[in-house]
Amino acid sequence: MHLTVGDQIRIETLRKREYALYSVIETPTAEVSDDIVRMCSRGMARVGAAKGFSGILDTAITRSSGLSDEEAPNESEFVERLDDRDATHQGLVVCAPHGGMIEEFTDLQAEHVFTVPRSLGKDVSCWRCKGWRQGGGAYDRWHIPSTRISPRSFPLLGQIRQRKFQYALSFHGYAGQSIRIGGAAPASLKQEIAAELRASPACTWAVDIASTGGAFSGASPKNFVNWLAAPGRGGLQIEQPKDARAQAHSQIAEAVARVLARHL
To answer: Are residues 141 and 32 in the same domain?
Structure first.
């Protein structure tokens, strides 16, 4: 199927029509049949299975062309979007790989940041994915860690993978209590964003800088936001608690946008 280690696939059960995204971690050459895919018990549980099942492996993981953002929630689907009106600029790309109900409000934040520099005539693109699942569980169905996202599997991301942007920013949600700024971007830029957030009246949460090598540091070169950025630049990763995203997602995005607009 022309897959390599690191690519994403979509597995669907035939009987219950449950489906989820997975990453390829091994392509064994000694398998007894080409029709076998193996996963651990946790992977089985993501599609409601406790043992082997008959299913479909699909290398097309999104349903972007067939569904609008209004239709996708009703279909419990996953879509990829890209606003990139100048396909040559190397300014800013703002991202949200886990939008929709995966990490709620993060796609709205990316779209908000996109509009601010653009209204000022700055070069900016916006890449995001949005996933839903009726009855809940969108995170379990659609979440792929930032260090495993493959541009071969996300075709719109693949279009900009070699651009090497001056700034690359990604919004995320997590279970922590503070707003955490990570990524491989210079410490001075992260400190500037932290100061802007702390000065915002709507931001009542602690704001900290992720320590290198710590949890949610976002500094790995495998993190897609870092390889989207030009060499020596590094990306920015904003991790946020759920209540911060629910109560102040637009104000947080506005503060980050103000800082980046000054640098473009």
So the answer is: no
What count of Cα atoms within 13 Å lies in the side-chain half-sphere of residue 191?
A: 3
CATH number at residue 84: 3.40.630.100
Query: Are 210 and 240 contacting, i.e. CB atoms less than 8 angstroms apart?
Result: no
Rounded distance, CA 219 to CA 10, Å? 28
**130 and 247 belong to one structural domain:** yes
The HSE-up count of residue 99 (CA atoms within 13 Å, CB side) is 26
The whole domain housing 226 covers 72-263
How many folded domains does the chain comprise?
A: 2
Q: Which amino acid is at 218?
A: G
The answer to whether residues 118 and 27 belong to one domain is no
Q: What is the pLDDT along the chain (264 residues), one digit of tens a residue?
A: 889 999 999 999 998 789 999 999 998 888 888 889 999 999 999 999 988 999 999 999 999 998 999 999 999 999 999 999 888 999 999 999 999 999 999 999 999 999 998 988 899 999 999 999 999 999 999 999 999 999 999 999 999 999 999 999 999 999 999 999 999 999 999 999 999 999 999 999 999 999 887 778 999 999 999 999 999 898 999 999 999 999 999 999 999 999 999 999
3-state secondary structure of 220: coil
Same domain, 112 and 183: yes
